[in-house]
Structure formats: C-alpha cells, structure tokens
Specification:
2 copies of one chain form a homodimer.
Chain A lengths: L4 H8 L8 H10 L1 H10 L9 H11 L4 H10 L2 E4 L21 E4 L4 H5 L2 E5 L6 H16 L3 E4 L5 H11 L4 E5 L12 H10 L1 E4 L9 H14 L2 E4 L7 H11 L3 E4 L7 H11 L3 E2 L3 H8 L2 H4 L15 H8 L7 E2 H8 L3 H13 L3 E4 L2 E4 L1 H13 L1
Parallel strand pairs in A: 3-4, 3-7, 4-5, 5-6, 7-8, 8-9
Antiparallel strand pairs in A: 1-2, 2-6, 10-12, 11-12
Chain lengths: ~375, ~375
C-alpha cells in the first residue's frame, strides 16, 4: 500500500493528534509518504518518539483508512485540503510544526481567500445575556463591514457570533474540534448545518472523530492563526477563549477584548487580557479599524490584489453581475449571476477579501479601483 | 492697607479665578503683596492683562476682604493654607502657574501628609447602580488598604466613593468648586459635613463663593495633582471626570479606569480612556498595586519617612497607643491616646502615609520598621 503525499496526509489526520509538533517535524523532514510507510511497516521508529509513543502511533496507524475517510467526507459534503494547495490558508503555516496536517472543509467558499479578511470572535460557553448580545452584535457588525467571522461553533459567545454574522447575510467559519461530519455540540446541529451552507465548517479531524478536552484547546490555535485578530467577548479566568487570545498574541495577530462589568466573573478573564497587551474595543467599527489595513481607513487606496482573469469563473460571474455604479443587494447579484444567494454571498466575501467589492449596510458595490479596472476592460473590448 | 504675603493670598482667592495662569505668573514674579498693592491702587496694570481684563480684576479687587474671609472661615471650621507652608501639599506645585493661590481647608488631618498616599475616585454624577456599587466598593477597599480617597463631593460616583471610604472607617477628602463653608450640592450637606469631621473638605474659593461650570472643570486639576492616580468609574463621552483623568496623565499621575458594559453610554468615556494610556483595574487591590510604591508589594522594605520626634505631638500619642505587636482597632487606639475615634483615624492615616503603621481589615499595626524604631527608643530609655 503506497499513497501519494496528499492521501498520506489524509491518512495521518487519523494518527497524529492536532498540534503534534513532533509529527509536524516528521512531515517536514521526511514527507507524509515516508511517515506513513514507516508507520505501516513498523520497523524504523521515527526520531524523537519514545518506545511507548511509537507503540501508540502504530496502534493508531492500523486505523488509517484514507479512501474511506475521503468517501465519507464527500458524503458529508466535505473535502480535504493540505498545505501548499491552492485552497490552503497560508496563515496556518505560521504555526510551524504545529501546523495542521490538513483540514477537512465543508462549504463552498475559498477558505484561503476568506481567511485573508477574517476575525475570530470567541468567548464563554456559559455566557451572560450581555455576552450573547455583544457577540451577536459584533458578528453582525463585522459581517456588515465585509469581515468573515470565525469561531468555534460552541454554545454561548461562539454561537451568538456565528448567528450574528449569518443573520446579517454575512460570512462565517466554524472551526470544530471533531470530524466536520458530526456537528458538536449536538444542540448546534442546525446552526452548524446552516454555517456549512452559507459559510464554512472546518476541522483537523477526520470523519467520525469526537472532540476531547485537549482537542478543544488545540483547535483554538487554528482559530487564532487563521484570522487577523481574536476578539474575546466574555471569558472567566482559565477560559479556553484566553488560550485562543494568547495564541493570537504569540502569532503576532491582534488580541482584542470587549470589557464588561468588573462585578461579573465572566468578564474577569477578558479584563486580565486587557491589563496586558490586548486592545479594548466597544464595537465592530473599532475591531474593523484595528485589524483593517490602511485600506480600511482609506478604501480608495486599495485596489484588487488579483487580476480579474485569475478569478474562479463563478466568482467572475458574480463580479460581472454588480452594477457599474451604486449598490446591489446580494439576491439581485445572485439573480444576475444565475446562482443562489448563499453562493453569491460566499463569492462576494471572496471578492471583498480580494479588494474588488465593498459592503455598505445590506448592499454591495464595486470598489473604486475595481470600477476603473472594469471600465478599462469594457472600453478595451 | 498693606497685607503680609499670606493675607494677600487670602485676599487674592476672591480676585483670581482658580487656574488663572496669568495670575499665577504675577504671584511668581511679583509676590502676592505687590499684586494686591497694584490692584488696590489701580495705577500700574500687571503685565499681560488686556485693558478689559484689568478692569474686571480691579472690580473684583474692590471686593477683597481677607480678615472677614478668615473670620468667616474660622466660624465654619476652616483654615487657609498657602504654598510653602508646612500643611501645603507639595504635589500641587506641579501645576506650575496654575497652582492654587491657596487652599481653604475644613477638617483636622494634615492635607500635606494625607496627600502623600491618596488616590482620586471620580465619575459620572448620573451614574448607574453599577457605577455607584463599584465606586463605593473601591472607596472602601482603598480605605482598608490605608489609602486616602479623594473626590469631588458630587452626586453619583463621587458621593459613593466618599461614602465607601467613610463607611470603612477610612480617610477621604472632598475637593469643592465653591467655598468650603457652603456644601455643594445641597443634597450632600450631611455627607460633606461628615467628611469635614472625619476627613478633609478643601477648595480654592473663599467663603460664600458659588460653583460655576468653569470652576467645576478647574477644580478637577486639583484632584488630579493632589493624588498619585485618578480612577474613573463611569463617565460618558465629554464627562468632567475625563478632564480629571487627562489632567492626571499630563501631570505624570496614574490614569486608571474601571470598565463596564460596552452597551452602557456611561462607560463609553472610560473605555475611550482605556483605549489610550489608562490602565484597566477591576478592584481596589489592583489600584493599590499600581499606585503603591515598592513598599506596597513588599511592605517590610519601607520604613517611616520621618523621625518619630518630628511627629505632631497628637500624632505621636496615637503612635504610642498602638500595641508593640498585633492589631488594634481605631477606637482602642483612640482610647489609649485619649482622643476621639475620628481624630485617631485621621492620625492613623497620617502615620500610614509616613510609613509607621499599616491597616489590615479593621485593625491597625506598627510596620516592621516602626516596631524596630519603637523598640530601639524603649530600650534606649
């Protein structure tokens, strides 16, 4: 049994736990095919693994089944992407040897492009009404400003942030600590299904895998690495959301906190962050101003980052469906491009991340730079 | 009519508005006696004053009546202190030419010594229940840690902070924007009277003067300059409390904010400060840690800053009434020193500021350094 590099990585998502830096080193030094070969043959232990660890890995390797995983994933509407592939978000490479072996992805939009313009909103599961309100308002406000809202799909703050983004006709990504075919928590099955339809549901674990406490913690590094900054809404001391925030800080991303009453234990962790290097924000406008590049403050000065010819054809059709002047609602654009509103929204956020369009309230319009480029193309024909 | 320098300053508190930097320059360049002489004679305008301004000053100068002011102040239990006098808090000299001409003071304790170890707690008049709760808790917590709580005597946060300190048997100073004989606001007559009995009520304006909007604003520079740091509890955008905080920052004092819900307009001003250089705190312990010197973190390393022989005799009796070991309540100390509890508390906070004693909960004890010094004295007899 020999796999190509990609299939070997699929196989290894069942063997290497998320964030296993020794495994990451093996992948970097030997390549996935060689790592799989040694695990299958079992005769040449990989360097740095204790005997016990090696035994454990051999046990897990006996459960590798990449073709079946890929087939099961496909049934669940998921695909697999690996480092270096066109869909791979390059930001994750900042994790070094803790970089995911690969990602399982449900949903149509390009994770790579969405990640360019994404912000994480995370916080307590058992949040207060205040935390839920703030997270939902932030999710909606970021979506309205053309930002992709990334979170963990959990109860409380995470769910409120996802719902806020969805409710504003926005883009959102749920990063799960289990197989993307099995929504967790169960009570969020409907929400996660909706995210997969309107946005993206991603994770490191192959179909059928369950979350564990360490998987939750390690999932957080993916949220932190994927995004330009992490906003913590409510977090008690020692909350997992603080793990995400600290990972963001280590990775050079913005660490951001929404304060709350000092009388609330659920704001204590956020306040602790804010007494360090995290930046205090009160609303989505302040988040956008912080994580946005110069273009955020002076949109005229940012043009598209990609020539129109290199756009995916479906995305090109959505771009072409935008009026030369003024705003259009996502469903109008969808009609013009002959596609569904969900797909049009996904592509509009890609176009936003690439600098072709802007969102203003519920409408979308070409950026000034894109307008010039479209006019140029038209006059040239 | 010629006055001595001190009486001339008394007279000028009725002529120069608080914070008048031109007046401050005259005082520095010519001395108060000469400034009064020119105002009385009216023939030699002081430099830099427009004709209109000079006329205005001459009009006000006709109302100078220092002896009557001193007599009225005495009737109201107030005294006058000027720059350079033993009771003058040297911190106010940091205000440069905007330094008060002098201060009217009601209450027994030494303003100079209390100011050494004081923190301002200020905020919105129309505060929320949350703001009032936080201010009262901070006032009490700072008092329990041996800190003098300074505020403006206003409704809302100010009043709650004063009451918190008083309720904890602590030391508090109200800085008024009117004559110290006329409590403002009227609804705080009882509170301000209590502060004058248990602490200090001070102001720049002579007896009978009313507050005005500009006097409120300029009063804030005194609060900022007097204290080691200013804590803002609740403040809307453009609140007067932010003026105090910014003055504190300009003077190199700590600027500190207590966050609140981002959904509350009364926390918006505080959050604006916290997005700048202000430090976020959640409780009195964090304030004390911040504004305290090294002695706050390692009390053993700080000895008294003054030889015992130089203490005021009444303060010396209170020091002598403390047990060689262990804690004593303020009323026990008062009994031992043959004085009232209010007076003993006032002197205990002076001794705290000077490094002789510490407060632990409701009890007072000698610092280690003071214990050694007391033992030394005793064995030497």
């Amino acid at each position: 049994m020999t796999y190509d590099e990609r299939t070997a990585r699929v196989a290894l998502t069942r063997v290497l736990e998320p964030g296993d830096e020794l495994g990451g080193r093996w992948l970097r030094e030997f390549g996935a095919v060689e790592v799989v070969r040694r695990l299958v043959e079992g005769r040449e232990p990989l360097p740095g693994a204790s005997a016990q660890r090696w035994e454990g890995l051999l046990g897990r390797a006996s459960r590798m089944r990449p073709e079946r995983d890929l087939a099961e994933a496909e049934d669940a509407g998921a695909r697999f992407i690996c480092p270096g592939e066109p869909q791979w978000p390059a930001q994750l490479d900042d994790l070094g040897d803790a970089r995911p072996t690969g990602l399982w992805v449900r949903g149509r939009p390009s994770l790579r492009i969405w990640a360019l313009r994404s912000v994480a909103v995370v916080g307590a599961r058992a949040c207060t009404e205040y935390g839920a309100h703030v997270a939902a308002t932030l999710g909606a406000g970021l979506a309205e400003r053309g930002w992709v809202v990334v979170s963990g799909g959990a109860y409380g703050v995470d769910g409120a942030a996802h719902r806020g983004a969805l409710g504003a006709g926005g883009a959102t990504v749920a990063v799960l600590a289990c197989g993307v075919d099995r929504p967790y928590p169960r009570g969020h099955t409907e929400l996660i299904t909706r995210i997969a339809e309107q946005g993206l549901v991603i994770g490191e674990l192959p179909p059928g895998e369950h979350p564990t406490p360490s998987r939750f913690i390690l999932r957080n590094r993916v949220i932190a690495a994927l995004t330009r900054g992490t906003v913590v809404v409510e977090a008690a001391y020692r909350s997992g959301a603080l793990v995400t925030a600290r990972a963001a800080a280590r990775l050079g991303r913005f660490t951001i906190g929404v304060p709350g009453p000092v009388t609330s234990g659920l704001s204590a962790g956020v306040h602790e962050l804010l007494r360090g290097d995290a930046v205090l924000v009160s609303d989505a406008a302040e988040v956008a101003e912080l994580v946005g590049d110069i273009g955020e403050l002076a949109p005229d000065r940012r043009g598209p980052v990609l020539p129109r010819d290199l756009l995916d054809p479906g995305t090109g059709r959505v771009l072409a469906a935008l009026p030369a002047r003024g705003l259009a609602a996502a469903d109008e654009v969808a009609r013009g491009a002959g596609t569904t509103t969900d797909e049009a929204v996904g592509r509009l956020y890609e176009l936003r991340a690439l600098g072709f369009v802007e969102r203003h309230g519920d409408g979308w319009k070409l950026t000034r730079q894109a307008m010039i480029s479209v006019r140029g193309d038209r006059s040239g024909r």
